[in-house]
Request: fold
Amino acid sequence: MFAFCTDPETLNRAAWMACYLTTGKHVAFYGAFGTVLLLLAVTAPTALAFGFLGAVAARSRLWLVSGIGRVYIALVRGVPDIAFFLFFVIALDQAFEWLRHQVKCPDWDQPIRQGSDFVVCAAAKLPLSTAPQWMHEVYGFLLAVVTFAIVFGAFAANVLFGAMRAVPRAQIETAEAYGMTARQTFWRILVPQMWVYALPGLSNLWMVLIKATPLLFLLGVEDIVYWARDLGGTKTPQFTAYPHGDWRMWYFLALLVFYLGFTRVSEIVLSRLMVRLTHGQATLAGEAQRKAAA
Amino acid sequence: MSCWETIADYAFRSLGFGERLLPRTDFTVCQQFTLIGSGMLWNIYFGAVALVSGFVLATAVALGKASAHPLLRKPSEWFIFVFRGSPLFIQFFFAYFAFLSLKSAYPFFDPFTSAWLGALIVLFLNTAAYSGEIFYGALLSVPKGDLEAADAYGFSGWRKFRRITWPTMLRLAWPAYTNEAIFLFHATALVFFSGFPARQQQGDALYYANYFADKTFNPFVPYPILAFYFILLTLAIIGLFGLVNRRLNRHLPQGTRPRMRLRPQIVR
Reply:
């Protein structure tokens, strides 16, 4: 990176550190923090959408739809999220390939599950075996996003389901008395009012989501945990210009500090958002704000 | 091989008893059920020991955070912040590598690098922080009237805490604490995926479920089995904590007793 980095052995400590922390692999490590932020940016709205659908399904009057919604919400509660992550990554992959197999190779006569193998025709492989490396990485990342969205969607569905029930019944009745249809009541009365009840749960969920991002490592994505293990391990002079002992502890300490800072900042932002949303609401906190202003 | 033989061979495989070799080909559902169930022993061990020991520290931390003295309050606040603000997964990794470094300097730390002690310590501290925050919140909402009544009856110091403040705090915190217990048991599934080695393939339920999913390349059998076990465990926790909840609330009039809900809040 720097011009003086050509011969690391002659450098003093500070310069050595500066060179060491700007090697190509370290830059990839810093880029992995971007992967985490990208995952959060994509997953949070997707999970919210899944949650909204789940909550609406659970409230449905059709028992089948309502049953599906409730099972979706309930299942995630009983089982560790990491189990879902490990499950969905393979299951989704196989489901996609199976679907493509049915469409693309209808005249395939062998069974797909042969003992311990999952065999689909070459055209149904995802991504195609001829695809470049970045396609494989993007596909892996997308699988991770969908997995996160499914799991956290169930959590969000639970929060939104509770929030919809927390909206005062009188509000709905008033809407009905004014002659609004069920659809109008839902979109104009229920949905705008539920957010203030949902926000404490959703901000909690955001915190949990942040703290679940290192699980990306288990899904085979080259994320910060992967790089921290890789870079921190003992390096001997044969293989690198920057030999050092086992520094993995310090790399994980850095990750710990990163997450602490991240959750702290989120906490502050979310509490401000809560103040905003409470404004003018018929709740205890909203009333307190009104009195303070008057 | 009949299913009974499989159970006899593998029921305590996770603890190192019975058949040494894991099945490699021709996996049966019975084998998967037995081995994953055998792994559950580890989850129960981690969860139960961390919960019981964490309970004590959590009470201390909650009292510390509620204390007026900064020397007690600040460390408690920081403890809760550090363990609640960072992912358990990273805590496991950090602790494992920290113990590994310590071990190379002092042989005393040798057992700390194995899961049964090292991971247990992390889980213990982690649950103490989460429960500490729950207890702290409950401590702040102990009704003023109860404490004034205690004063009027001549309670003070330790006796007042033991007889009035602490039981009320527990009573108020219990539903949230139940939720935390469920999450703690779920969190135990992370142990063998975060640095801590499963020596001689003695792992927890998820370790074996993952083993079967990798070997058969069919996730649709082992993970539902795992889910079955964990749902059973979750129901058992809710049942057990419900009994304690009944006891904690037994002095209240029938109608106002808070009931344990089968659908508690799910987010930690």
User: Anything to note?
Assistant: Chain B has one domain: 48-256. Chain B touches chain A through 46 residues (CB under 8 Å). Residues 2 and 240 of chain B are 35 Å apart (CA to CA). Chain B has nine helices and no strands.
